[in-house]
Amino acid sequence: MNAARWRHPVVRQWYWMLAALLVATAVASYSAFFWRFDLSLYDAALPTGAAPQDVVIVAVDDASIAELGRWPWRRALHAALIDRLSEFGAKAIALDFLLTEPDLEAPQEDIALAQALSRGPPTVLPLSVAMPDAGHPIHEVLPIPIFAQAVTAIGHAHLELDRDGVVRSVFLREGIRTPEHPHLAVALLASEPGAAPVRLQGARHPDLAGAPNVWVRDYQILIPFLGPPGHFKQVSYVDVLRGSVSSSDIRGKLVLVGATAQGVGDAYPTPRSGGGRDMAGIEVTANVLQALRSGNAIQPLPRWATTLFALLPVAAAALALLLLAPRHSLLVVGGILCATLGASVLALRSGVCWWPPSAPLATLLIIYPLWSWRRLEATQTFFALQFGSLANEHFPLLSRIPAPSSTQRPIDFVEQRIELLRHAIERLRSVRRLLADTVSNLPDATLLADAEGRVVLANPAAAAMFGAPDYREMEDKPVDAYLFARIGIDAARFSALSAKAPCTLEATLAAGGRHTLIRAVPFRDSGQRRLGTIVAIADITELRVAQRERDDVLRFLSHDMKSPASSLLGLAQLQRDPSRALPPLELSQRLDLLAQRLLTLVDGFVSLARAESTDPLAFEDFDLRDAVQDAYDEVWATAQARNVNILARVPEDSVIVHGDRQLLARAIINLLNNAVKFSPDTSAVQLTCQTDSDEASIKVTDEGPGVAPENAPLLFQRFTRGLHRSAVDPGGAGLGLAFVRVVAEKHAGRVAIEDTQAHGAVFRMVLPVVDANASRLPTESG
After folding, report:
1. 227-241, 363-377, 621-635, 746-760 — which is least confidently predicted?
2. What is the Cα 584 distance to its own chain's centre?
3. Quick one: which H or E segment has residue 365?
4. d(Cα 448, Cα 475) in Å, to the nearest integer?
5. Which of 6-10, 375-379, 399-403 is least confident?
6. pLDDT at position 604, please?
7. Does the model's pTM come out above 0.85?
8. Selection from 231, 227, 279 nearest residue 46 by Cα
9. Cα torsion at 359, 361, 367, 369 (round to 10°)?
10. Pick from 174, 185, 341, 626: CA 20 to 30 A from residue 257's CA?
11. d(Cα 658, Cα 681) in Å, to the nearest integer?
12. Distance separating the N- and C-terminal Cα atoms of the chain
C-alpha cells in the first residue's frame, strides 16, 4: 500500500476508530471493567488435579465436635493430638488455631501444650491482625510467648477476597510496614527438616512498604485449586486422638490441623465451591501448600502487562479489517477472538499466568460491525456522489441514470442504492457493447493494446488482415506478434510508436505488397492516465493506385495532350510570319494531323473515364453478336485502307449478355483497331465470338509482331505503349487496352493476351452469358 492510500479518507477514519478502540480497551482492561466476566472465565478454565498423597488434613469435623463437646476445647486435647501425630511420625505440622491468649483457668494445660510442641515434629502457628479502632492503630496479635517459643515458625493465614466475595488469591508475605510474616503454607514448607529455602513467586506490591501503621502485603499468587471441598485427604481429629487411624496415614506427611465443622472454623467460597459448600480455611491452605511445592502457583499479570497484551489483538484485528475483504476479515477477526480467548485459557491451565481477556474480547466483538458500519457509510457517501454525477451526465444513444432522490421504488435504503447501481452497471454494459460494436464494425483493422502491449480488443477486419481465424482469438496476445509478421514492426518499434502516439506511419504488408497506413492513438482514463494504445491499420492500396493514376493523368495532360496543342500554337505563330508561313495545303495537312491526334487522345481519355464511371445497375440484356457486328462495321473501312482483311465468325444462336452494348462494342473496336494497327499490309485479322457453357468469349487474332512475354502483364495498364516487338511506335495514348480491361471488369468478365508467339498476338475477352436465342450474323465477311 503506497503512501497516498494511507492518506485516503476511509483510512483516516480507520485511524480514528483504531485510536478510540485502543483507548477504550486500555481503560477497560486497566480498570477491570469486565471483572465479572473475567472471574467467571477464570473459574471455568481453572484446571483440576489430583490431591498429593503426602499432605493430610486433621479436621475438627462435626463428629469430633459431637464427641468432644463445644468448641473451643481444652488445650490438653491439643497437646495429646500433637503427641499422637509425633507418635505416628508426622513430618511437619501446621496448627491452624489462634493461641493468642493464655488459659487463665488451666495454665498447666498451656505448659503441657508448649511442651508437646517443643518435643514434637516442626510445627507452625498462625497469627492474627487487630484492625484499628478508637485510639488503637492496626497491630499484630501473635501467639502467647510460651507457644511462640515452642513452635518452629509463625505465619499468617489470611486470604484475599475478590469483588464477588470468592477466594482466588493469597499473599505469601504480610506485615506492618514490612511484609515479614510468611503465609502459613510457606512457614510449613520452610520448617520441613532439611528443606531448602522457599522461593517466593507472585505479583509484587512494593508501593506500600515502609508506610507506618499500614498492613503491607507482597508476593500475590492465584491459587490453583485442585478440586472441590474435601478433595484433600482428611482424618477426623477425634480418630487421631483415639489412635484409631493407621499410622501410614500420618507417617512422613505434612499435617494440617484445622476446623472443618459447620460454624466452628472459617470457610470461604472458592472457584471450586458448588452446591452451597464453602471450602474450609485449612483446605485453602492445603491448596496453597501444594501450589508452592509443585511450582504451579498462577501469577497474576501486572496491570500494565494486562493492558499491553489487551491492545495487541485489537490492533491485529483492525489491521485485518483494513487490508482484507469483508469475508476474509470476518474470518480473521473471528480467529483472533478465538486465539485471544484460547491464549488466556491456555496460560491459566498451564500454570503460567492469568491474563483477563474480557476487555479485548469485548472490543473484538464490536470491531467488525463498527468498521462494517463505517465502510457502509463511506460506500453510501461515495455512491451518492457518483450516482449524482452520473445522473447529470449524458452519453449519446444511452438513457440517463435516475437521480438518487428520484429512486423511490424500493423501501429499504440499501435497496435504493442497489437499484441505482443496477442502472449504472446496465449503462456500463451498454457502453462496453457500444464500444465493442463500434470497433467491430470499423472498416479498418483496429487493435486496442494495453500498456504492456497485449491485445485487449480486436475487430474482424484485423482478423482478416492478420490471417487469424477469429478476432476474439487475437485478444491477450502481444500486438507486435501480428505487426511484425505482417508489417515488420517488432516490440521495440511498437513501444517507440506507442510512446510518441498520436502518430502515423505508412508500411507495406509482407504478403501481397499492399500499402497500409498505421495510426497509433493513446487512450486514457478519466484521470488522464494512459491505459494503452489504439492501433488502426487502413489499407490504402486503392488510394495509392488512384494517386498513381492521377499522376499518370497529369503526365498525359501535361505531355501527350499538351504536345499537339503546343504544335497547333506553333503553327499559328509560324503563319503570322509571311517569310516562314507554310503553304496552304501543307498547313491544312498538318492541322488535320494534329487535330486528329488531339481528338483521338481526348476520345480515348473520355471513353476510359466513361467506362470507369458506368453504373452496372443501368445494364440491360442484349445479344453480344450485335456488339460484334457494330465493331466489325466500325473498323472495316480502316482495315480496308490498310489492305487488312477482317474475318468474323459468330455462332448461329443468340449470345445474351447483361451489360452496355455501346461499351462492349467500343471495347471490341479497340481490340480490332489494335490488331489492324500492328498487322502488316495484305494480312488478315480474325474476329471470333463463341460460347462455352455459361461464358462467351471474343477472340481477336492478328499477324503482327506480337508482344514479348515480359511485356504482357503491362498491356492493359494506362498510358502504356510501345510494348510490341515492332521497332516502330505506331503512336496512340496507351488507353485503348486499358479501356478494354475496364469494360470487361465492369461486365464481370476478364481480358488477357492469350498467345505471345513470335508473330501475331491473340487477345481474348470473356463475359458471362445470360441467355441465348437463335439469330444469325454473317458467318464471314471480307
Report:
1. 746-760
2. 97
3. helix 358-391
4. 9
5. 399-403
6. 62
7. no
8. 227
9. -130
10. 174
11. 37
12. 98
